[in-house]
Amino acid sequence: MQNTKSNLRANIVSVALTMFKTQGIRAVRMDDVAKSMKISKRTLYEQFTDKEQLLLECVKLNADNQQLIHANYMEQSKGLMDALCFFIKHGLEEFSRYSPNFFVDVLKYKAVREFLDKKHKSERNIQETFLRKGIEEGLVVNNVNFKLLSRMNKAAIDTLIREKVYEQYPIQEIFRTFILVFLRGILTAKGQKELEKYLGNEFFQ
After folding, report:
1. Residues 1-24: what's their mean pLDDT?
2. Using alpha carbons only, what angle is made at residue 159 by residues 65 and 88, rounded to the nearest 5 degrees?
3. Which residues does 196 contact at the CB level (< 8 Å), separation at least 6?
4. Do residues 194 and 83 lie in contact, with contact meaning Cβ atoms separated by under 8 Å?
5. Which of 94, 91, 92, 73 is nearest to 83 (CA)?
6. What residues does 58 pair with on adjacent strands?
7. Percent of the residues in the chain that have a pLDDT greater than 70, as a whole number
8. Are 7 and 84 contacting, i.e. CB atoms less than 8 angstroms apart?
């Protein structure tokens, strides 16, 4: 019985995550999730007290999934640049599945926002380690304040969301442009040459 309840809860989170991503959070009601699952609202609320709790579980699942994908690729990658290019391509594919409204809606939920802030802080250390390895390989310039860079990147992303730039440009184009500017600023000539080899010249045109 317990296993059945666990499976139901996991299935609800999986279905709701897809709905939130593609439709935006505000547009998806608990009624909609229940109908998609072919369960009653009562059954849904037995698993999740409210929409915020469900959303938090969805965001946690998505974070775990992305972390697993990245970790698995790192184990088989041919090097730092190979891994970096995979992360970029995977990021572009991921963003193509999102409704722009998701990124605005998600910030309205305190518990979710706090989880994401904590997640981003822990990821900063991983990113710094990753970039320092790039310095050792001659791919990244050695005079970058990584902590300051991380804060500047977050501020830029917050501004893009607050100014609703996604209403004028596709999410994929915003992500691509952001990454392009970021990489042009931190890669050495050797690093840029390696990046173009992996991604193809069309990415930079």
Report:
1. 87
2. 35
3. 203, 204
4. no
5. 73
6. none
7. 96
8. no
Confidence class of residue 43 from pLDDT cuts 50, 70 and 90? very high
Which residue is it, tokens 């050695």? 142
Q: Is 90 exceeded by the pLDDT of residue 17?
A: yes
pLDDT digits (tens, 9 = 90+) for 162-182: 888 988 998 888 888 888 888
- As a three-state string, the secondary structure of the chain is CHHHHHHHHHHHHHHHHHHHHHHCCCCCCHHHHHHHHCCCHHHHHHHCCCHHHHHHHHHHHHHHHHHHHHHHHHHHCCCHHHHHHHHHHHHHHHHCCCCHHHHHHHHHCHHHHHHHHHHHHHHHHHHHHHHHHHHHCCCECCCCCHHHHHHHHHHHHHHHHHCCHHHCCCHHHHHHHHHHHHHHHHECHHHHHHHHHHHCHHHHC
Burial of 112 (0-12, 13-18, 19+ CB in 10 A): buried
What distances in angstroms separate CA 171 from CA 19, 107, 160, one per listed residue? 17, 17, 10
Burial label for 2, CB within 10 Å (0-12, 13-18, 19+), is exposed
pLDDT in tens, 85-132: 888 888 888 888 899 889 889 989 999 999 998 998 888 888 888 888
